[in-house]
Amino acid sequence: MDTRSHGLQSWIERLNQAELPALAAVVQDLQRLAQQEHASVQQLADVLLRDASLTSKVLRVGNSAYYNPSQETIKTISRAIVLIGFDNVRLISLSVSLIDGLLTRAPREQLQELLARSFHAAVQARNIAGYVLTRYEEEVFIAALLYHLGELAFWGCGGEQADELASALSQPGVDVEEAVRAVLGTSFRQLTQGLVKGWNIGEIASLAHNSVNHNDPAVRAVSLGARISEAALGGWDSPAMEAVVGEMATFIGGSPQEAMQQVLASADEAVKVAATFGASQLCRLIPNTDPEQIRLQQEQRKASLLQPNLQLLQQALQDLGLLASRRGDLDLILDTLLKGLHQGAGLERVMLVVLAGGQSCFRAKRVVGEETEGWLRDFLLPVESREQPHIFSYVLRNKEAVWMGVPASYSLNELVTQPIRQRLGQGMFFIAPLLAGNREIGVIYADNRVSGRALKHEQFVAFQRFTQLTRRCLEALSQRA
To answer: Which of 264, 289, 304 is the last residue of a domain?
Structure first.
């Protein structure tokens, strides 16, 4: 039975008492030691030895090439503290606890993405701090790692409410803040502040969420690290990245080019750190710095957001059925068709082309999906000439839906002409006639080229169903007209 929580206090109590008491206790103990002027090696060892699994993981990380390049074998926590330092052992312990406390319970995609971003932010922030601070780098790392603690805890422990929010956030044009508040009764920022305060995570972490302290160099480093990790998801050459790298350059007293080199080096280091901490499943989610990998990663990240939504699919089919039997508005029919194919059937790119120019050419009328904006501007295809027939005219003439790229349609491959390939790319696609009864209107095209994922049989069945219902809707509309 999943208990519902609503409001800040309700969530803090649930996370502290029911969901994360062990993690909270370790974090509090480790932070308490950080604040003691003369905390001993033994005190830190005692905190870790209470948990055999944590001890063994900390030793494994301590023996990694990243923390222990001399490769002298470390067998005890006290030896680890001597060799790699009190602060490093504390940082490793806290990071490993966080991964264990959250990932082992609910390795949902949102949690993994946010944890990857948190590790990336932490490494960026620590390395930025290295330019301007002589100490506090480890505290900056921890403050950046826990910068989204409330949201991490929610995705790790939110149960049915996490499913509810994931569903709400998948809707196009959603206001994220409003959706979060509707499901939680508070904001992620307030939840983070509440946990940071309750877990006594330290001054820098507390200050990081308070806008009046942004001149504090440690807080500034945390903020820059968090913003870099977020901007990187949009690409290393995005306007957001350019802006934050410009700020970082001013902050560290270097050129934007030097700052960018440091950012890329830190991103590579973050991948090593995540793997070292035993969270190798996060490495794929930290933006890559190899140009080809960057391109692939961006495409996969965009596409990973789109999954078939059966509820939405059924609703769109039902709506089209009703529009066929009533006086359906043309725009509403086409909107329902595209929404059903894109969000319902999970087809990444959908285009509706209509006969234009006195039936002499196909022109893009509606598009949806990543990388489709240009189609509206420049997708123009002459209706076939005798010398070079093509697939768009073929499906319209034969009045049948075709799945290109499977053996059944190999005989039609030559109809995918060079101009079509240049505009739409290579690979599988669905294509069907857009008809009003028997009157030719245009063609519907759909593919999964953003991610390169194979199209599925269920998607083709849905595609055929949508085109049939749209034909009925348009026929009803033309009869009334």
So the answer is: 304
